[in-house]
Structure formats: structure tokens, C-alpha cells
Amino acid sequence: MSSLIIKLGWAAFAMTGAAAFAVIALQRGESIGAIWIVIATICVYTIAYRFYSRFIARRVLRLDPTRMTPAYKFNDGLDYVPTNKYVLFGHHFAAIAGAGPLVGPILAAQMGYMPGMLWLLAGVVFAGAVQDFTVLFISTRRNGRSLGDLIKSELGQIPGMIALFGTFFIMLILLAVLALIVVKALAESPWGTFTVAATIPTALFMGVYARYFRPGAIGEVSLIGFALLMLSIVGGQYVQEIPELATLFTLTGEQLTWLLIGYGFIASVLPIWLLLAPRDYLSTFLKIGTIVGLAIGVIFISPELKMPAFTQFVDGSGPVWSGSLFPFLFITIACGAVSGFHSLISSGTTPKMIRNETDARFIGYGAMLMESFVAIMALVAASTLEPGVYFAMNSPAAIIGTTAESAAETISKWGFYLTPEMVTQTAKDVGEHTIISRTGGAPTLAVGMAHILSEFAGGRTMMAFWYHFAILFEALFILTAVDAGTRAGRFMLQDLLGSFIPSMKRTDSLGASLIATGLCVAGWGYFLYQGVVDPLGGINTLWPLFGISNQMLAGVALILCSAVLFKMKRDRFAWITIVPASWVIVCTLTAAWQKIFDANPRIGFLAHADKYKGAIAEGQVLPPAKSIEQMQQVIFNDYVNASLAGLFMLVLISMLAFGIRTVICARALGKPSAREAPFELLPAEALSKS
Amino acid sequence: MMINRITQAMRYMGQSMRLMVGVPAYDAYVAHMKHTHPGEPIMSYETFFRERQEARYGGKVNRCC
Prior knowledge:
The complex is a heterodimer. By secondary structure, chain A is mostly helical. Helix content of chain A is 73%, strand content 1%. Chain A has helices at residues 2-26, 34-60, 70-73, 85-96, 100-108, 113-140, 147-154, 157-186, 190-213, 218-241, 243-249, 253-269, 276-301, 325-333, 342-346, 350-353, 359-383, 387-394, 397-400, 404-413, 420-429, 442-456, 463-498, 510-533, 539-567, 575-597, 605-617, 628-668, 684-689, and strands spanning 32-33, 304-305. Chain A has a two-stranded antiparallel sheet with strand order 1-2. The mean pLDDT of chain A is 94. Helix content of chain B is 65%, strand content 0%. In chain B, 31% of the residues are buried. Chains A and B meet through helix 4, helix 8, helix 13, helix 15 and helix 23 of A and helix 1, helix 2 and helix 3 of B.
């Protein structure tokens, strides 16, 4: 009887989801409330979690509640600590959520909200969450080892090295694209620049406070820091109004680039407690708080989506980024649907703290659903903007010009309603000089968030505050990622170079670490600078490269998962990772191929280089270059980008070959060959808890 | 009963927030040391906090894009 009621309950739930989809699908031509998207999304997630993740947990991976976990085996109270699953969920979610799921869907909105929404839902259920969950499971069964180690032990030494090498380049591109987003958001914006700059003294103060006055009082020092941040947002408005100060904080993209490069270098060699740790507190807590706030706003306000379900740009002619829906939509959205980077987190601290193997389902699959929900909210926030305003903000100046009139004229021709007054009024509302060509996603999200949050608190007068709050929130955690990433990149590089020059391996040597830091900063700084001066906005080049690298890593992780399933003799269930792996590999390879060889210079790097070569032959100088030398530089950049895309393809293809070899060997064997830690029973006290 | 559950939830939330920035439960560390390694020196909260801070940023990738 009760099982019948449960079945009826799930049937009703599924019907609700279907009804929400019906509303979304049928209300074409007029705008719909965001709440329908939220209902449909939550229904999809709940059903996927209840049925699909349970199927994976019970039938495919066969999670064993009595099996020893690394947290109990190596318990040291520090790295390995058996942790409550809700506590660990929070930790894991905070580690995987970053700028990626916020930016990707905003850029994807140029095709309308529907393609992005559908991929976010399908991608997370069948690819992203499956990857995170399976990698977490694999690592937990192998003493919490890292992805590189797992690949080495399950696929072989060489593929392990290839994966590590690939990861280093992903870091460089990631840091460059994140820094580019900050530059695009802060260029020519004294209010934003002041607010973000003020986080440095704030963090230094917090660092000293938490080191000497009140050691370890994280909550207290974070509250003080938060209060100072709010003051700096308010202060930023005054800075903007006082002409002398305003000029001081009005910086061009190039100036900001050099400042960021200098900042990245200094911040990553300073002691951790002084700048990095306190900034990390602020950014982590602000991130979680803002995500919760945005969720409440979207659910209760239910803003209307003004963006159409589909725009004419599904054909690939869009101004925000170039390339057709397949494969570039999937590359652009990346993180919110499936993110390769998560495989590093799922094989990082989380498996060392998991109390019981069965928690892997809630933490691995569940946290990724949450991340996807964040991406859906970002998509909603971007779609609440008037489409004309969205395109004015996200199209490069080379296409729409730099004045409100030229932007309105061009965008109206595309069929989106936009007047010059709308452009200036939006800028005025959010307290900026201009909103034209504020590419990179962050400002768009900030305007969307300001719309939603100001309806919640403060109305129109508070919009400028909320806009700068949102910019601060994004810049803060991007800058934390930049200096933590530079640090991590430096260690990776020292490790890699150490294989050839042993003295580089010494992480305590000042000379070696300065050289490695310098190389790392120069690496991402190069791509950043190239992106900032690009007349097409930089995002057009760097975001696809970032997406390709991220999806490549996802492909690698899913290949590992599939190989492990075969080695466990779960052949008949291996499709759960083979299907997403194939899709991710096809998208990544197609996108990388097109980025290199496509005949359209907006897409293909080589075609772009040829265009500049042709111009040189005719003695012409094309922007952004101002001289023939700079033209040569543009061509050189194109070759670097093309080589990088080629490198990502090679990494993925070679991993695929190693994966297939492993599967063939595993199938030929009569018995399981996965290299798990030998079975041990969980201690009795742990068994009684679960 | 209800109050207990709320305090428990609050405790978990605090614990989760600290873990987000790389600091696991100090009580658990002390309990573990007392139970498994009796007689060995136990770090003070300050030392524990600094040790964890260094460990968090010691070259691992601990966050995402």
C-alpha cells in the first residue's frame, strides 16, 4: 500500500515537471516567468537523483556500506577525517562552484535560453554528475588518490604523465580567461576598480588580525571583512563622483592587465596567511551567500525572461562568440553541465573525508546538480535582460561600435528592440559610464542580479549598489582563483621542470620558486594580454580554448571511469560513462578542429592568420595591430592558439587510445583487474553510525 | 527535541563553513589524538589552524573554475 502511495507521489512529481516544461514550450513568442524554469529544473534533478543516481550507486558501482574508507583507515584529524555527509557536501560544493558555471550560460544565452537550458539539464544528469560521482567513488576506493595517480595506476605511466601535462595548460588558459573577465568588468569603471582594489588592504588587515590578534577566529574576521567590503562598495560611489579620485581609478584594459600580472606575481609569493587565506574566506562565504540570495530572488520574484527561447544566432553567426550550436554551445557552457576540473576535486580532499562509501552518491552526484542549478540561475539572470541590452553588453566594439547610437542601430537591424536611451539609461541605473561591449559575462550577470536583487531590497535606487556588489563578488573569487592557481601552477611547473633540472624541484628555494612563478605568470599573462587587445573582445578566442581544455579533461576523466568499469567486470553497465565520454570527445575534437582549420577567420585560427598575412602582403595594417610588427605578433598569437588547440586534441586522442587498450586487456582477462585498495571492514563504531 | 535539532544543524553549518576554507573540526582532531596516539603532543588550536592554512594552499588544486 505505502509503496503504491510512493509511486503515485513520484508520478505526480513527474507530471509537475512535465507541466512546467509544457508551459515553457507552449508560451513561445511571449515572455515567461523564471519560476517555470525553476520548477522544471528541480523536477528533473530530483527524478534524476532518485532514480538514475540510485541505479548507478546500487547496480553499477555497487557502493558497499561496510567497506573501509580512507577517512577511517588513515584518520589523522587533519587531511583524513571522517566527516558528516552534509558537512562534506558543503565543502565539496564550495570547491567545485566557481566563475565557470556563471559565465558559460550567460555567453550561451546568445542562442536564446532554450539550447542552454536543455544542455544544462541533460548534460548534468547524464555526464557531469555521473563523472563527479564515479571519480569520487574510484578515488575513495583507492585511498583518496589524485586523478593523475589514478590514471597512472589504471591506464599506465605514460597516460598519467600526459594527463598532468595537459592539466598544466588548462591552468594557464583558465587563469588567463578568469583574469580577462575581471579586466573586462573593471576597465573604465572607477567604482568597480576602487571596490575591488579595496579588497587588498581589507584582506591584508584580516590576515594580520587572524594571525596575531585573534588567531584562527575565522568567523569573526570574515564578518569584519564583510563589513569593510560593503563600506568599500559605498565608498566607490564617492570615488566616482570626485573627479581627481575618479581619474586615478579609471584604468584602461591594458593598464589593468599589467596591474593584474604584477598582482598575480606578488600575491603568489607572499605568505599564505597575509593575503591569500583571508581573501579566500571572503570570497568563499560571499560566493555561498550570494548564490543562496540569488536562488531566493529567482524563486520569489520570478523575473520574466525577455530573451526569446531561440534566437537566429543558433546558426553560428552570433556576435558574442562564433561557431554553430554543435559543437560550440557545449564547449561554451562547459562547467555547469560537465566540468573536467571537478575530477581533480573529486580526487582531492573530498574522498579523504568521506565517512561511508554510500555518501559518494549524495556528495558527488548531488553537489553537481547544485552546481548546474547555479548555472541555470545565471542563464535566468542573463535572460531577464532586454535582449537588445544583452547584445549591447556582450558584442565586441568591432561589430557594434562604441556609441549608444551605433550599438542601437546595429542591434535593431538584428531584430532586437534597442534605443540609444535604453543603453544610456541602463548604464545610469547601474552607476557606470557605459555598458557597451562589457563582454566576459560578469557585467551581464551583475546587471541581471541587480535587477533581481533590487526588486527584493532597495528598488531602483539600490541598483547601482547591487551591480557593484555582484561585480565585487565575481572579481573577488576570480582573484582568489588567480593567486591560488598561480601558486598551484608554480608547484606543477617545478615538478615538471624538476624532471629535467633537479634544482628546480626545490620548493623551498627562493630562486627556483621565483623563476617558476615568473614563468607561470608570464604564461597566463601572455594569453590575457592577447585577449585584452583583441578587437573581437578576447572572449571570442579564449573562452572556446578554455571550454575545449575543460571538456578535454572531462573526456579524460570519463575514459578513466569507463576503463575502471571494464576492469571491475561491469561491462554491461559501462555505457553510463561511455555515452557521455563519447559525446564529450566528439564535441571537443570537432570544436578544436574547427578552431584550427575553419575557413571563417572568426572561428579558425589559421584562417585568421592567413587574413593578416594577406594584409601584410598588400601593405595594409588591420586592427588591433598598429604596425607591421604588431601584425606579425597577431599571426604568431594565432599559431600559438592553434598549437594549443592541437595539443588538447592530441592529449585527448592519446588518452582515448590508452583507454581502449586498457579495456581490451581487461576484457581478455577472466577476472576483475581494477587496482582497488584491498577490502577491509569499516570499524564497528563507523558501521553503527551509518 | 526541536531545539536540539536546530543546534545540531547550526553546528554542522559552522563546521561546513570552516571546512570550506580548509579547516576541519578541531574537536575531532583532539579526540582522535587522545584516542589513537595517547601521550603524543597535541597541537594547540592556533598551531592547528596555521598547519591547515599552509596545507590548503601547498600547491594542490583545491578549487574550480
